[in-house]
């Protein structure tokens, strides 16, 4: 009976390890996303007086590329990743939103804050989802990612419910939200890489 119990535990542990190995496939995509978000944040800070037309095109391209990255990660892990549907949904919404911004760059000033705010809100929700995925894998540091996601969500909500606070303020909040989300995405990718390196010494 002891040997049987040990064998069952060994099988369960082996299956768990294999699941973790599959879980971290394409971890580097989040590094790329994080770098793109950091570039977007610093670009926005360095060009605070850029027109909303320029911001619309820039955000549209960034959001579209981010969506493609998320879709690639979701499909690459669809049979292994817990709650991969959230990542898939976020990727689809990003692609659609980015396409709309690229197709209609002349969106009025009254509409763009809602779109950017919604995107930042979605970005924060995705970060929260990633944090809970790390929590399911018993990875330390998931709380920081969750905190970053919540902070990003709050920025998104602030932009949605205060669309007339002024262009300069909106641009500043957008830049800060992108920087926070970029840092958190890079931290998340490094956590996934640590898991992969630990499983494959």
Provide a concise account of the structure shown.
Helix content is 82%, strand content 0%.
Would you mind describing this structure in some detail?
By secondary structure, this protein is mostly helical. The chain has a single domain (28-199), classed as Alpha Horseshoe (Serine Threonine Protein Phosphatase 5, Tetratricopeptide repeat), CATH 1.25.40. The protein has 7 helices and no strands. The chain has helices spanning 2-23, 28-46, 52-76, 84-103, 112-136, 142-161, 167-199. Helix 2 runs antiparallel to helix 3. The radius of gyration is 19 Å and the shape is globular. It starts with a helix and ends with a helix. Residues 1-17 have low confidence and may be disordered. Keywords: Membrane, Transmembrane, Transmembrane helix. The chain crosses the membrane at residues 27-46, 52-73, 85-105, 111-132, 144-161, 167-188. It holds the Pfam family DUF308. InterPro entries: Acid_resist_chaperone_HdeD (IPR052712), DUF308_memb (IPR005325). It comes from Sphingobacterium sp. (strain 21).
List its traits.
about 200 residues, disordered N terminus, Serine Threonine Protein Phosphatase 5, Tetratricopeptide repeat, 7 helices, mainly alpha
How is the secondary structure organized here?
Blueprint: H1 2-23, H2 28-46, H3 52-76, H4 84-103, H5 112-136, H6 142-161, H7 167-199
Helix pairs in contact: 1-7, 2-3, 2-7, 3-4, 4-5, 5-6, 5-7, 6-7
Number of helices: 7
Strand segment count: 0
Q: Helix/strand/pairing class, anyone?
A: mainly alpha
Instruction: Classify the beta-strand content into a percent band.
Output: under 5%
CATH topology: Serine Threonine Protein Phosphatase 5, Tetratricopeptide repeat
- What would you report as the Rg, rounded to the nearest angstrom? 19 Å
Helix fraction by DSSP (H/I, runs of at least 4): over 70%
Report how far the terminal alpha carbons are from each other: 33 Å
Main beta sheet strand tally, sense and closure: none
State mean pLDDT (0 to 100 scale).
Answer: 74
């Amino acid at each position: 009976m002891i040997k049987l119990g040990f064998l069952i535990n060994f099988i369960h542990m082996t299956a768990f390890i294999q699941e973790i190995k599959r879980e971290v496939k394409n971890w580097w995509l989040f590094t790329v996303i994080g770098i793109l978000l950091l570039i977007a944040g610093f670009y926005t800070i360095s060009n605070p007086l850029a027109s909303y037309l320029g911001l619309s095109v820039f955000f549209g391209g960034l959001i579209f590329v981010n969506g493609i990255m998320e879709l690639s990660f979701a499909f690459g892990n669809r049979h292994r990743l817990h709650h991969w549907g959230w990542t898939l949904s976020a990727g689809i919404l990003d692609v659609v939103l980015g396409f709309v911004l690229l197709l209609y760059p002349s969106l009025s000033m009254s509409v763009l804050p809602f779109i950017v705010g919604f995107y930042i809100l979605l970005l924060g929700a995705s970060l929260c989802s990633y944090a809970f995925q790390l929590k399911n894998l018993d990875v330390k540091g998931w709380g920081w990612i969750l905190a970053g996601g919540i902070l990003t969500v709050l920025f998104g909500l602030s932009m949605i419910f205060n669309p007339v606070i002024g262009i300069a303020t909106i641009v500043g909040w957008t830049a800060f939200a992108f920087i926070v989300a970029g840092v958190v995405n890079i931290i998340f990718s490094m956590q996934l890489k640590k898991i992969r390196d630990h499983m494959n010494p």
